[in-house]
Amino acid sequence: NNITLTGNEINFNNTVSGNNINLTLQPFTSAFPVEIGGTSNNNPNSLNLTNTELNLLQNGFNLIIIGGESTGNINAVGNVSFRDTITLESGTGSIETRGFNITGTDNAAITLNANQNINVRNIINPNGNISLRTSNGFINTNDLVGNSVNLTTNNGNITLSLIQNFSLINPNITTNGGNFTLNSPSVIQLLATGEL
Fold first, then answer.
1. What was the pLDDT predicted at 52?
2. Rounded to two decimals, what is the model's pTM?
C-alpha cells in the first residue's frame, strides 16, 4: 500500500523504508510552503525536510512525492540527493532551488511540477530522466545532466544558462508559445532524438 504523511511538520528520527511503494510527504495547510535540504527544522512557517531526514529515506521506494496539489512554494535551503524517483509538486506556487544542486543516484527520475515559476541551479542525474513542468510560469535553469530532459511550460519562457559545455540527451522542450533561450559559453550538443 502507498503511504501519505500530511502535516505542517514531519520529523524522522530513524530510517524509513518501503518496498516498491509510493511515499507522499505534504503539508496539511493549503498553500503552506516546503523547505528541503539544509540542517534546520526551526522554521515554523514551512514544512522542513532536512538533509538528515531525507537521507533517512532508504532506497527501494517506487516514488517519493514531496508536496501536492495544494502545496505552496518549495524552496531548497541546501544541496539535496535522492536515491529513488522523486517528484517535487508545488500545486499553488513556485519551485526555487537556485544556489543548490539536486542530485539523483541509481536510476532515479527527477520531476519538478509547479503552478508558477521554476528556478533551479543544477540537476545532476546521469542515469535517470529529468522533467520540469510549469502550468503558469517560466523555467530558468543552469546545467541539467540526465538520461533525457523534458521541459514544458504553458506559454512561459524557458531559459537555460549553462555553465560549461553541455549536452541535451533526448530533449523534449515545449513552451506552447513562450520563448526558448539557450546560453552556453562553448559547445551545445543535442544528442539522440529529441524535439524542440
1. 94
2. 0.90
